Amino acid sequence: MSSCCTPDGSCHTGDAKENAETGTATAVGDGHTTTYKVNGVGSAHCQGVVTKALSGLDTVLSVDAGIGTGVVTVVTGGAPDDSLIARTIEDAGYEFVGRA
């Protein structure tokens, strides 16, 4: 598995912008909020890749991937499918660690 980001958080695209803050996701209606640990999200580019990949899933209402924190918060329309979320993150080139 590969990522555009190196272990030190820099990105080979030249985008070394980092932000240690994590955002929060607010569930809407019957949405379920789940926080995951993901390795390799060290730049705004990586954040966008993970967000786009997860947002493409039918059950996902919103995604908030923290840059450099390894925290990805996902709001789903029902109970989250952890295996589908893990596979989607890994297919995007990042390491899914599990629920945070």
Give an overview of the whole structure.
The longest helix has 12 residues, at 44-55. 29% of the residues are buried. The two termini are 21 Å apart. This protein has a domain at 43-91: 2-Layer Sandwich (Alpha-Beta Plaits), CATH 3.30.70.100. The protein has 100 residues and is α+β, with helices and mostly antiparallel strands. The protein has two helices and four strands. The protein has a four-stranded antiparallel β-sheet, covered by helices on one side. Residues 12-27 have low confidence and may be disordered.
Descriptors:
alpha+beta; Alpha-Beta Plaits; four-stranded antiparallel sheet; 2 helices; 25% strand
Helix and strand arrangement:
Elements: E1 32-39, H1 44-55, E2 60-65, E3 71-76, H2 82-91, E4 95-99
Antiparallel strand pairs: 1-3, 1-4, 2-3
CATH class label of one domain:
Alpha Beta
Structural class comes to alpha+beta
Q: If you consult CATH, what is the topology of one domain?
A: Alpha-Beta Plaits
Give the total of beta strands. Answer: 4
Uncertain regions: pLDDT < 50 for 5+ in a row? Answer: 12-27
Quick overview:
The chain is of the alpha+beta class and 100 residues long.
